[in-house]
Write a structure and sequence with these properties.
This protein has 248 residues and is α+β, with helices and mostly antiparallel strands. It folds into two domains: 155 residues, Replication Fork Single-Stranded Dna Binding Protein (Replication Fork Single-Stranded DNA Binding Protein), CATH 3.90.198.10; 59 residues, no CATH class. The protein contains eight helices and six strands; from the N terminus they run αββαββαββααααα. Strands 1, 2, 3, 4, 5 and 6 form a six-stranded antiparallel beta sheet that branches. Strand 5 and strand 6 form a beta hairpin. Helix 1 packs across helix 3 and helix 6 runs parallel beside helix 8. 30% of the residues are buried.
Length: 248
């Protein structure tokens, strides 16, 4: 296996660490866990949160950076879950990836399943994750993983129409009216004032990547959940501040 992708992702993790049943694995609440195998190489990117979606940082000349918003690191991996016999995508930030590096260096990733567990309630900005070895893979499991057709993580991240999946479209059930533009704008404004983890928790709970993709049937539940996040983080609708970057 080439180390170039690992080295690149680790370099980005070091940079950020010093300063600061759908396709996707969802661990939304304290104690949520999943067991599976990390497959292939990582895909690392520096992104900005717009209030509705991630946008990749373009480096020099980036408009978000020009507004004083620091990019954050997101690293994704293919993740095979034996219980479902499904290949998913798991994604995390700086600390999550640094823990993954430690596990890789100590155990290797190609012969084990690992248990990933969330430690922190929904909306808790101090949420952490543990990655622990679970079981060694048997010959049949190793063969099954070897034969997998991995998700193209770069295409998934970019929402490339030629890809079968997208960070902007996971967990959509299809059909059903969406919330109106006014409510979407209101929710975006309120969520942008909250910490990154609270925003991620909201998206995870409702299985969407963009606020405007919320189902109209979830309108009341979404408003109540935002209120609970604001209360937990000591904020109210009128306290939204443009200076808050969910991924700062």
């Amino acid at each position: 296996m080439s180390n170039s992708a690992w080295d690149q992702a680790q370099g980005l993790a070091d940079k950020h660490g010093s300063g600061s049943g759908g396709l996707f694995v969802r661990l939304a609440n304290n104690g949520d866990k999943i067991v599976g195998s990390f497959v292939g190489e990582p895909f690392a990117r520096e992104v900005h949160w717009t209030g509705e979606r991630y946008e990749e940082c373009s480096g020099d000349g980036c408009s978000h950076c020009g507004e004083g918003k620091r990019p954050s690191l997101r690293v994704s991996m293919n993740f095979f879950t034996p219980a479902e016999r499904a290949l998913k995508v798991i994604e995390g930030g700086v600390m999550w990836f640094k823990d993954l590096l430690k596990v890789r260096d100590k155990y290797g990733l190609d012969k084990w399943t690992f248990e990933v567990e969330r430690h922190g309630d929904a909306g808790d900005p101090k949420t952490t994750y543990t990655i622990l070895p679970d079981e060694k893979l048997g010959k049949e499991q190793l063969k099954e993983i070897e034969d997998l057709r991995l998700h193209d993580l770069a295409k998934v991240a970019s929402g490339d129409s030629s890809s079968s999946s997208s960070f902007d479209s996971y967990d959509k059930s299809g059909g059903g009216a969406l919330i109106d533009a006014r409510l979407a704008s209101e929710l975006v404004s309120r969520l942008k004032a909250l910490p990154r983890d609270a925003v991620d928790t909201f998206l995870e709970k409702f299985g969407v990547k963009r606020i405007r993709d919320l189902k109209a049937a979830d309108k009341a539940a979404a408003q109540e959940f935002v209120e609970s996040l604001e209360t937990k983080n000591g904020r109210g609708p009128a306290e939204a501040s443009d200076e808050v970057d969910p991924f700062a």
